[in-house]
Specification:
binds guanosine-5'-diphosphate, 320 residues, 13 strands, three-stranded mixed β-sheet, 15% strand, globular, Rossmann fold
Length: 320
Amino acid sequence: MSTNAPIDRSSRVYISGHSGLVGSAIWRYLESQGFINLLGVSSGQLDLRDRPAVFSYFDAIRPDVVIDAAAKVGGIHANSTYPAEFLSDNLQIQLNVMDAANAHNVDRLLFLGSSCIYPRLAPQPIKEDSLLTGPLEPTNQAYAVAKIAGIMQVQAVRTQYGRRWISAMPTNLYGPGDNFHPQNAHVLPSLVRRFDAAARAGSPSVEVWGSGAPRREFLYVDDMASAALFLLENYDEPETINVGFGSDLSIAELAQLVAGTVGFEGRIVQDASKPDGTPQKLLDVSRMKALGWEASTSLADGLASTFEWFRQHHASLRNS
Ligand code: GDP
């Protein structure tokens, strides 16, 4: 259902995870839209897994709106190496933020999940009603189960307390401020970093994990940020809603695009010893389109500005 319920620009909006890829993009976007009371706290000052601390923070800030963009995230390697933390940290973070928001009678909340909540072999493009219709992709099922629990919490609070809480499932996001960690990052920032290093070193070849055949969809994070506000103002349903770009490409095609963007001219070698993960992850975005929202940044443009950010911050990126 389309609602059209504008949010007052002086509302107190708490963005959890406001220094992460998605949270920082949402912060920038809301500022650009005239919001004057944005609230956020770094993980160094507030550990969102610490329930009493989260409740005290909510006592202090008294938010009107909550955007829950905090999560422990990572690529295929990180997800399959640290499943215990991906499950436990994410469950605790979202439970604490949502319970505190409920205790403070926050009427509007947006919970952000991920396209990996859908079954591994869901029919493509993936519709929202594929949720819980089949087994998950094993490489990220711990993370997925945590996010599915978040969707359920949003629905349960709506049912029991009548709040206008919603959840949205973004496809693979990328952009300025991403994690470019060599092993733990997602594919796009990983390739930007590795291909750039290879181009600088004049290496004859560079490795790409897996077969190159899996297909992924990529959404520029500023588009996700505009979708977040759009949904808070225009969507009020219990079902989660997909936020995607609308088309996908193979990892081999992505590697070519990254090579062109960073200026790597050597050979691209697939490392078949690394996992492929799910064969395809393309979201059906027809519900978002019907509401009146579409992604506007092409992959080529988004990749160019991501690379530009990477070049400027290259020296200070984390390696562990
Ligand atoms: P996924 O979408 O949950 O599978 O997560 P990723 O973004 O980590 O991986 C997407 C696909 O890219 C998988 O098929 C990976 O094997 C492949 N891939 C190729 N090279 C890399 C790399 O350097 N890092 C990562 N994370 N994935 C890579």
